[in-house]
Model the fold of this input.
Amino acid sequence: MSKKVLIVGGVAGGASAAARARRLDENAQIIVFERGPYISFANCGLPYHIGGEIELRSALLLQTPESFKKRFNVDIRIKSEVLSIDKKAKTVTVHNIAADTEYTESYDALILSPGAGPLIPPIAGVRNHLTYALRNVPDMDAIIASIEINKPKHATVCGGGFIGLEMAEALRHRKIKVTIVELGPQVMASVDIEIANVLHDELEQHDVELKLGKALQGIAPSAPADKSLILTLNDGSVVETNLLIMAVGVKPETSLAVQAGLEIGELGGIKVNAFMQSSDPAIYAVGDAIEDPDFVTGDAIFVPLAGPANRQGRLAANNIFGAKETYKKTQGTAICKVFELAIASTGLNEKTLLRKAISYEKVYVHASSHAGYYPGAHPVTLKLLFDPATGLILGAQAVGKEGVDKRIDVISVAQRAGLTVYDLQDLELCYAPPFGSARDVVNQAGLVASNVMKGDEVIFHSEDLESLSDKQILVDVRSELEVDNTGMIHGAINIPVDDIRANLCKLDQNKEILIYCQVGVRGHVASRLLTNLGYKVKNLSGGFKTWKLATR
Done:
């Protein structure tokens, strides 16, 4: 007998589950309930339509109920809200919003894919005609309508995550002045601050005002005819703005799961097992509403990304129709475009490793996106985090104008495959001058980390410079011209790398020599030279450039 599968929610998880279910069983009855008017849309593309990069609104509508029905013979019911679940009877109660009627529908298997909703803090005055969040197509339409009607001169974006940054860029493309208010010390919390500082510079170069470490505390009352809002921040400062975008984060939509008595995890998402089953084995849950297991630690994490949601939707459908496949955990691999830059990461960041007391080491590489002698090469900054005992990859972050995506993708695959930093140095990657270097950025990171693992180089980091002792000598091995142009780290002496042999008398062999150059390469040369002469030497990973980013 054919199964009857109900799916609550479309877009990434629900739509992929529906399509996969049909491909597995032509006779199954598959019904998708979607509260909104659109079953499958490119929610990641919404900011780009607001900013004008994606010109056609229709390009965001990936499937209509009619096209989905024609292709997959799936019963798509838009404007249909599932109100409750009766686990014992295996039925759901549905509200047909258009007809304002209710009915019940039975199921053999139920997939919950309700997604996550925007988190709106309980701030006085936040419900007004000039404040918006961005989750779906109607939200996008409302923001565009507000811009076209009110013609704002200034907008405030509350939150510096993916949506906040993409919205800031979109609004600048429309020639609107933008202020980002972010409670944390940096934007893009998924990376560490020295990497985020590259973004801070990029945002400010594009006239985006940053108010970091600040929070929206209140909004003065406004009338529908008003074209501006008065915002009060937690430091007492005031911002007058014509448009407010709330992008402080999202929270899993779990109201149905809670009503049904399904187990909710420690982070507030639906708890599922490796087969995507909730605490009721007939009810599966996927996407932004669930808690994922972290790839490195196995701990519960909340990662609202389209890639995991798509994989989970497919996996749930497979298991409903007889498979016993397990979800292979989430790395959180992600990328964001911010004006001319891309910033990407995979695995754990340093903040998380510190918080969880996980032993780690880190190295930095500053290299070119492709061969420097070929026109158009741009800097790429890469941070690699690894286990100092095993060399296993814990995480990576990169920022630059081009080539960031492929480097993080390669490291993401290496991490999932259980490769170590030793393997990174041996990866055979595509090379031609327009595309890369004979020794790619990833290879370089592997080589540096392998040197550290083998003891061929001892490194130190920017934070170690906060507590220099009289038993250490800090040496800048850059050229005199470089030092004249950029200055030195306080307390350093300058001996260019090519002059070290002639200046050994300046280096007390009874003291520890701390070496740095611009990015770490010449520092390595100097470190090896002095180490071979019997000095105790450490090299600053990432050099002066990383120190500047870390101490911005």
Notes: The longest strand covers residues 361-368. The first helix runs from residue 11 to 24. DSSP finds 15 helices and 32 strands in the chain. The two ends are 65 Å apart (CA to CA).
